[in-house]
């Protein structure tokens, strides 16, 4: 298993957590917005491991703000990380999976991409694109033994989200009230859904979008 992050320390910390669970893991420094770097990284991993079995695209970034106040530089960054990053990694990983006749791709979207989210217009658009992209690729590669699915978290206690609401107790409470289960999600709850869709138990599931949102989205 390889943990990739553009921040080397974070990649190593993720690998450390995986090792603590008794699994093998290595850290890889990678910027998913750099296509050539992605190609090189996936080729290196595939060569070292004899192929790539599972690809999980969970890189993400956003900036909460009204769309009319947002700037083109922010749009480009949001789209590059949240959507183009998925295109880069998928395009680089698929040829090997198709050649082997097996593979699982799990893309982390967002409920913002399904129903919209105030203050996240471009992010919502990028995540909606990930959902549509994943369904299309799933149709194209299903008969070649490759499954592609999407996990859409709702409001979740990630460092980025908690940093953005740290000084806004009112917003935090409003988020919690909007969720039928009455609380925000925990990162590990999203991880469990990803692990299932990456497993053999989900071998007959492809082209699907699973919300992990405490009931916020029911469709």
From TrEMBL:
Its keywords, alphabetically, are: Oxidoreductase
User: Which top-rank group of organisms is this from?
Assistant: Bacteria
Q: Name one GO molecular function term.
A: oxidoreductase activity
The biological process GO terms on file are: monocarboxylic acid metabolic process
For the keyword Oxidoreductase, the answer is yes
Family, according to the entry, reads as follows: Belongs to the short-chain dehydrogenases/reductases (SDR) family.
- What protein am I looking at? 3-oxoacyl-[acyl-carrier protein] reductase
Source species taxonomy:
Bacteria, Bacillati, Actinomycetota, Nitriliruptoria, Euzebyales
């Amino acid at each position: 298993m390889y943990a990739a992050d553009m921040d080397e320390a974070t990649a190593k910390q993720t690998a450390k957590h995986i090792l603590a669970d008794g699994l093998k893991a290595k850290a890889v420094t990678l910027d998913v917005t750099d296509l050539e770097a992605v190609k090189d990284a996936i080729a290196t991993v595939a060569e070292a491991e004899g192929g790539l079995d599972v690809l999980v695209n969970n890189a993400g970034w956003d900036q909460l703000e009204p769309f009319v106040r947002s700037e083109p530089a922010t749009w480009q960054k949001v789209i590059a990380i949240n959507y183009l990053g998925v295109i880069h990694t998928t395009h680089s990983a698929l040829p090997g999976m198709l050649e082997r006749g097996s593979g699982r791709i799990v893309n982390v979207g967002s409920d913002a991409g399904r129903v919209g989210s105030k203050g996240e217009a471009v992010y919502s658009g990028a995540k909606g694109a990930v959902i549509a992209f994943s369904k299309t690729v799933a149709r194209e590669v299903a008969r070649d033994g490759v499954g592609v699915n999407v996990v859409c978290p709702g409001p979740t206690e990630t460092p980025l989200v908690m940093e953005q609401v740290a000084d806004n107790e009112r917003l935090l409470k409003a988020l919690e009230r909007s969720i039928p289960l009455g609380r925000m999600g925990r990162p590990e709850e999203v991880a469990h859904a990803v692990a299932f869709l990456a497993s053999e138990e989900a071998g007959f599931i492809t082209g699907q979008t699973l919300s992990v949102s405490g009931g916020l989205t029911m469709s």
